[in-house]
Amino acid sequence: xxxxxxxxxxxxxxxxxxxxxxxxxxxxxxxxxxxxxxxxxxxxxxxxxxxxxxxxxxxxxxxxxxxxxxxxxxxxxxxxxxxxxxxxxxxxxxxxxxxxxxxxxxxxxxxxxxxxxxxxxxxxxxxxxxxxxxxx
Length: 136
Known about the structure:
48% of the residues lie in helices and 18% in strands. The protein has six helices and five strands.
């Protein structure tokens, strides 16, 4: 292990991430990848549950799917956008019937720092998370 990876891992341990996605396999995979990278992860199966989790704790990053039951990702983004301080946000989506590019461009209007289209690789997820957290 190099000194740089230790520093990065130490920094990530203090970072808490909320993952909101109705796809159980996707949620589990994201949780696994992020926890292995040293992040603390809380998951929620839909927008309504995600907003309850959000209200209960402070998160540095919220990863939210757009198309979900209960409350969709746009409703979640609007509610989170009202919070102060507002966490950084990463939207993930397969596009649904609206078309992926349109969905992801709409998300950016809600103050989302980055978007990621499904399916994505472990490396793409970690890169997107690092970019959002570092502000680049």
